[in-house]
Amino acid sequence: MDLLEFENTSALDAELVKKVVDLLAKAIEHHGSASLVVSGGRTPKGFFHLLSQEFLEWPKVTVTLADERWVDADHKDSNEKLVQENLLINEAHAARFMALKNLASSASSGEVSIGQDLSTIGRFTVVILGMGDDGHTASLFPGSKTLSAGLDMESGRQCLAVQPLDAPYERMSMTLPRLLDSEQIIVHVSGENKGKVLAMADAGEDPFELPIRAVLQQTTTPVVVYWAK
């Protein structure tokens, strides 16, 4: 596991911004556009604010989410709301955003349409993933009925509808093969408990026990972990 340790979240956020800006700028230079996949939760808020202030050719950047709760964009638990209010501000207000929630009545009925949207982006520039204390990443939860489909590298699916066992709301999650279709993956975590889960994930082999293992132990895409104590 390629692990970068930081004494605090402020130090981590500053270095993570440098890394992401460099990746996005190079992609714009070489390909004329770039894409950034981010995750929800409390952990990335400081990073979002710092990144939003960076001078980039933001109109050439597409931002989307690794997963989303099937709630309206103005709902307090919406990841889109989090991104709109904390990242797509300041300089980054000009970036293009692709939602993982549409007007369909359920995630399962919206899955095909969102998958078609995601396929238009092509290979991602950088994917930033979080991790739960149970080892889930995106909405690939241990014990979920859809986990096998989500981890299936031969599924051909961009995303899938997920009903978490212990969390509210139906969700839309990118699949493992879609997440890995990226030039770089960064796992962004903080806290002692998350550090212990990372160590467990690194030591074991079963991705169905800790789905983050499927990201950390694959050899398709470069992965680095940014962890703040």
Tell me the CATH architecture: 3-Layer(aba) Sandwich
**What is the CATH third-level topology name?**
Rossmann fold
Mean pLDDT: 96
Shape: globular
* Cα separation of the termini: 17 Å
Low-pLDDT parts are none
Assign the CATH class: Alpha Beta
Strand tally, please? Answer: 10
Which percent bin holds the helix content? 25-40%
Main sheet summary: 7 strands, parallel
Strand order of the largest sheet: 1-10-9-6-2-3-5
Give a verbal description of the structure.
- The protein is of the alpha/beta class.
- It has a single domain, classed as 3-Layer(aba) Sandwich (Rossmann fold).
- Helix content is 34%, strand content 21%.
- The protein has a 7-stranded parallel sheet, sandwiched between helices.
- α1 crosses α2.
- It is globular and about 45 Å long.
Annotate the secondary structure layout:
Layout: E1 3-6, H1 9-31, E2 34-38, H2 45-52, E3 61-65, E4 67-69, H3 79-86, E5 96-98, H4 107-119, E6 124-129, H5 147-151, E7 159-162, E8 171-174, H6 176-180, E9 182-190, H7 192-203, H8 212-216, E10 223-228
Parallel strand pairs: 1-10, 2-3, 2-6, 3-5, 6-9, 9-10
Antiparallel strand pairs: 4-8, 7-8
Helix pairs in contact: 1-2
